[in-house]
Amino acid sequence: MKKLIAIFCIIFWAGLMGGISFLEAPLKFQAPGITIPLGLGIGQLVFQALNKIEIVLLLIILACSLPAPLKNISSILLFSITILLMADTFWLLPLLDERAKLVLAGHAPMKSYHHILYIIVDTIKFLLLIALGFLNLKSLYHEKGYS
User: Fold this and answer.
1) Where exactly are the transmembrane stretches of this chain (predicted)?
2) Is the pLDDT of residue 70 over 80?
3) Minimal CB count within 10 Å: which of 26, 53, 114, 125?
4) Are 40 and 103 within 8 A, CB to CB?
């Protein structure tokens, strides 16, 4: 049952990221009447909520997966996802939030690579989640004797 819960959380997380990071975020600014400040305000709320959900999902996945040695590919993928989420949570999102606050206050922040880096990190995290989900499904498939 723990493995099924972990698989569900992994696939659900990947789906959230796909829907929010790669669909909603870029399309939001194309909607009629959406200004940069309005889009940034919405983005702040959405990405803060997404980050909290990601942390909860990671904790559930870890609780269902541990103890696991860092010797198999699934454990290495999960460790990598954890590191990337921590980078988002404690480094990139706070920096991007400060930039958004400057724009919302009417200031023009200096050029920065952090938004592109956030997109790259999220893309890698998304791909790792997909790979981890498939590996866990394959493992479950073999455990049940369907191979």
Assistant:
1) 42-64, 76-96, 116-137
2) no
3) 26
4) yes
